[in-house]
Amino acid sequence: MADQGAIDSDGVKPPKGFLDWLKRLLRIREGMLLMILVVSFIIMSFASEHFLTWGNMRAVLLSFSTEGIVVVGMTMLIIVGGIDLSVGAAMCLAMVVAGKLFLIGMNPWLASLFGVGATALAGFVMGMFVTRVGLSFFITSLAFFGLLRGIGFIITEGTPLSLFTLPPSFKYIGQGNFYGVPVVIIIFFVVAVIGDILLRKASAFRKVIYVGSNEHAANYAGINVRNVRLWTTVLCSSLAGFAGIMFMARLGVATPTFGIGSELNIIAAAVIGGASLNGGKGSVLGAILGIALLSLVTSSMILLDISIFWQDTIRSLILLAAVSIDHLVNKHR
User: Which parts of the chain span the membrane according to its record (predicted)?
Assistant: First the structure.
């Protein structure tokens, strides 16, 4: 009989039972978040009879699906060692550019392409300032936060654009359902799965982790660090623009004040999901679980009738706890 303490083919002792398996799971950031989500679901199912209804679950999924698209790009940017404080303004810019072009007679699909293109261009220019001029991601994206928001106000003259005349075929991507499941949720899952697979398997996307882990070693390995950071910045801005178009189709309006504060929620989700602000670590799956947790907390606070004045405080404490845990774990390692 084989010894119970035998070593498996990978040189690691196999788990002896459920507790060993659980310990291994909790060592993984995604596993820990998944356990927190499961426990939260169980607690809330007893705390509120409305929590496990399809209506509430649908609302929770809708609440983070569109921002979740941006989280995919933000996670990659944080892993590479950057950060983008302008993604909320980029969402706004895409919708107001597309909305304005539609109102002057352009096909909404083509107008949307121009809207996403505008955010991609903004990401390219921002990336050039970082990689060629040598500015930091933080100060550059902070400047673009005000710049893109200002352009949105100039285009709209501070007045929301009513887009209720958008054709049904276009509104379908934001308001439609496919076999009872909102199309927004389906698109989000497709983007998240593709992003996760690319980051784990594609060699071009693996360079994101190499650059974030050790820039000098990546340079010696022949990786063009500046180009990796540049296209990652463009990708993040483009996904923000795409999310803005999804919001436009869903809401039927383009307003210059849209997305204020959403960048903090997106960054928080990526960090809670395990993306290190020092770069080199993180996953799309973890970030998606992070934004799911934030949405679940928000939904739970609403169902439990917690004052809105406390909600931002509680979310901020969750973020602070996540960053502190990440710092302590890295310091221990």
Answer: 31-48, 60-80, 109-130, 137-156, 176-199, 230-251, 257-277, 284-302
pTM of the full predicted structure?
Answer: 0.87
The Cα–Cα gap between 95 and 246 comes to 9
b/e for 240-259, b at 16 or more Cβ within 10 A?
Answer: bbbbbbbbbbbbbbbbbebb
Q: Which fold has domain 64-332?
A: ABC transporter involved in vitamin B12 uptake, BtuC (1.10.3470)
Q: Judging by DSSP bridges, how do beta strands 177-178 and 161-162 pair with one another?
A: unpaired
Domain range summary for the chain, segments of one domain joined by +: 64-332
Residue 114 identity (one-letter amino acid): F
* Tokens 């698109």, located at residue: 187
